[in-house]
Amino acid sequence: MTVLEVLNAATDFLRKCEVESPRLNAEHLLAHVLHKKNRIELYIEFERTLGEAERAPLRELVRRRSEGIPLQHLLGTVDFMGLEFATDARALIPRPETELLVGLVLAEGAGLRIADVGTGSGVIALTLANKLPEAAVAACDISPDALALARENADRHGLARRITFLECDLLSGFDGPADAVVANLPYISTVEIATLSREVRHDPVLALDGGADGLDLVRRLTPEAAAKLAPGGLVALEIGLGQAAEVARILAAHNFRDISIRRDYQNIERFLIARHG
Ligand SMILES: C[S@@+](CC[C@H](N)C(=O)[O-])C[C@H]1O[C@@H](n2cnc3c(N)ncnc32)[C@H](O)[C@@H]1O
Residue ranges of the alpha helices (H) in the chain? Predict the structure, then answer.
């Protein structure tokens, strides 16, 4: 079978198994098996014949994808603002929206002492450390597994010495003061978890579950951030659909000002930024 025939067969199979974007998934998986830098490189090899040694690992990946294992777990990495991060079942798969959160923080000016709360794979903390060479960044997470992955990602990019990894509940292990507190905490309500796609259910529950209305963690973080931010310090939060007004109210009640709601790629109110004091 040629590259094109193998791709067509994999695409048909994934479509039958109700995998979204079956062609794109098939291309990513084949590019991975053939060690291509990106899937576009496949296009110039469409007529090349693939042997069993190349088809067997692809078959296995396509089978696992058809069972709902996320593409990113099968590929093992994701690109986040131009840096490659390892991703696996230990932490949430980084989402493209979170790049916007980091962009907002950079545009606002984060200062030099930054805390990333619920760091997961470390994408926020490590990207900020990479973009702000003078900054000291604390990466906090209650999950030792997530922190281990974040550490591996820091090593991958030579950033480990710039980051303090703290295994703690929210900001409890961080002495402060901070110029910026950035957080993409779990914000899905507990009842909603069961309704998520089979792919999302491969993310750790600890990375998703935000309690009864999804805002348990944001509610607890806000006073902690207020206590640890330097005067005028920035808070930047990623939140869920329909939560912006309530989060703005929580921030205002804790002496945050200049509260601004920002939208994501789908025009959904997804981020809040504000200054303390
Ligand atoms: C939605 S994930 C975000 C991961 C990463 N920051 C990102 O944007 O891809 C939320 C993270 O918060 C962590 N977390 C959950 N409860 C926490 C708590 N009480 N204190 C600190 N981290 C917590 C989870 O382990 C998870 O890594």
Answer: 3-16, 22-33, 52-66, 71-75, 96-108, 123-131, 144-156, 190-193, 216-228, 244-253
Mutational pocket test of ligand 1: of 174, 185, 193, the residue with most ligand atoms within 8 Å of the beta carbon: 185
> What's the pTM value of the predicted model, to 2 decimals?
0.95
Total domains present in the chain:
2
Identify whether residues 109 and 245 lie together within a single domain.
Answer: yes
3-state SS, residue 183: strand
The pick from 92, 116, 209 for probing ligand 1's pocket by mutation, whose C-beta has the most ligand atoms within 8 angstroms, reads 92
Q: What is the CATH number of the domain that holds 247?
A: 3.40.50.150
Q: Which residue reads 């798969």 in tokens? A: 93
Q: Could you report the per-residue pLDDT of 211-246, keeping only the tens digit for each?
A: 999 999 999 999 999 999 999 999 999 999 999 999
